[in-house]
Amino acid sequence: MTEPTPVISNELTSETPVMAFAQLQLAAPLARAIAEMGYESMTPIQAQAIPVVLQGRDVMGAAQTGTGKTAAFALPLMQRMLKHENASTSPARHPVRALVLLPTRELADQVAEQVKLYGKYTDLRSAVVFGGIDMKPQTAELKKGVEVLVATPGRLLDHIEAKNCVLNQVEYVVLDEADRMLDIGFLPDLQRILSYLPKQRTTLLFSATFSPEIKRLANSYLQDPVTIEVARSNATASTIEQHFYSVGDDDKRHALHQILKSRALKQAFVFVNSKLGCARLARSLEREGLKTTALHGDKSQDERLKALESFKNGEVDLLVATDVAARGLDIKDVPAVFNFDIPFHAEDYVHRIGRTGRAGQAGLAVTFVAKSDLRLVAEIEKLLKTKFDLEPFEFDEDLPDIHKQGHINDGHRLYQHRDGVPARSAYAERPRAPRPEFRRQQAPVDPFFEKPYEPSLPPEAAPAWEAAVKPAGRSISSNIKPKRKVAALFAGD
Ligand code: AMP
């Protein structure tokens, strides 16, 4: 038996300031909002960044996702903007004073949601604009005037060109997930947007990694920034138990079922490398009785937000996602992340497994390694400066053979009745008519791509694997052992 892979140490050190929010003397409306959200102590990035931003200094912050960086910039910006707070209905009294730029629609939506919560008891207005949806409602909101504008670069430029917003009174700019913005190719858009802003301003740049490109961006746009690095830029949180299992491509779904069941996992992220693979896997898992939704770049904006929402509110158990679609999403308490495919870029391993073990929660990251993947594993090891044990995967014979039963499904049940009682799985509860795609397997066009993906279970149903087949008498894999957990959110180095 192989010992579990050691987690990477990222412990709280004596240098890491741990401060209560009360010590900051935040303005009453902000203090009230965060108290309501249950924040007591600041996370390391907050303890370091908030006082610096309150002084009006530029910041170059390296922080992995889930460290609390949104509050680290949003709270001090709002505190400084409170002097402009007013309840006037005149748009002229509410010019854009803070601009927060993010690479993806989901991230923009998520940050805007948090900003709204922090500003709940102030008269500061905030709005979010991103592409893929109608510009009109965004335009109407912008025309009324907003102090804090959260945006993706492309859509913001559309609004600037349409003269829907004026940025000549911007005092604060946040470039969040800056490395991702450069990866996506937003540099020219960023340069154009920054050229519309007053030179006198505070600029905050956050990035998971400080690549040479990011340093160049910082040199061009930040003035004498304070560098804040609360966690190694390529570190994984110490709350995450990581496993690398040797599993052939054809056995990965089987292994996934087995781990979900043996660990009694309620929800998980499953990462794949391609949009097509994402859609296919989501479909297979759904067919095998798991409530699954897919998140990839070919989905419409509306579908992506719906997929995210249904996962967040627990309507679906598995979110199968590609890297671009899932990067940085704040979905808390995801008990596990599966790397169904190993990411092509080792940095994406860090981002993927950052979905679990967040905000001090314990997490599990499982990576399936086929023979051809060994080179990619070596790259992850090089990045993280850690050697991982490649563990053999022990298949439990009690589990359903999904290759025989689930894969070519024609109404056949994957999960059997237990003790004469129908198991609560998608197949047991809601036998379905064969889907058109099974009948037309040779068709050149996959109808899946022509309609939104729809999970087929009602929200209240339990995860299918909880009820599927008879429970294993022993732990499925003797390789899985719990690790000592350390609160990641408050750990710095
Ligand atoms: P972020 O890295 O900004 O996406 O934050 C990750 C999650 O941690 C969010 O859901 C925040 O609401 C939460 N969070 C941020 N700061 C704190 C804090 N000081 N105490 C507790 N939760 C926090």
Written account of the structure:
By secondary structure, the protein is an alpha/beta fold. Strands 3-4-2-5-6-1-7 form a seven-stranded parallel sheet, with helices on both faces. A seven-stranded parallel sheet has the order 10-11-9-12-13-8-14, with helices on both faces. α3 packs across α4. The chain has 19 helices and 14 strands. It binds adenosine monophosphate. Adenosine monophosphate binds next to α3.
Strand order of the largest sheet: 3-4-2-5-6-1-7
Could you tell me the number of beta strands?
A: 14
Radius of gyration: 24 Å
Counting H and I runs of at least 4 residues, what is the number of helices? 19
Average of per-residue pLDDT values: 77
- Low-pLDDT stretches are 1-17, 403-493
Q: Main sheet, how many strands, which sense, barrel?
A: 7 strands, parallel
Query: Briefly, what CATH class of the largest domain?
Result: Alpha Beta
CATH architecture of the largest domain: 3-Layer(aba) Sandwich
User: What's the number of domains?
Assistant: 2
Q: What is CATH's topology name of the largest domain?
A: Rossmann fold
Name the structural class: alpha/beta
Span of the ends, CA to CA? 33 Å
Q: Can you tell me the CATH superfamily of the largest domain?
A: P-loop containing nucleotide triphosphate hydrolases
Tell me the β content. Answer: 5-15%
Shape: globular
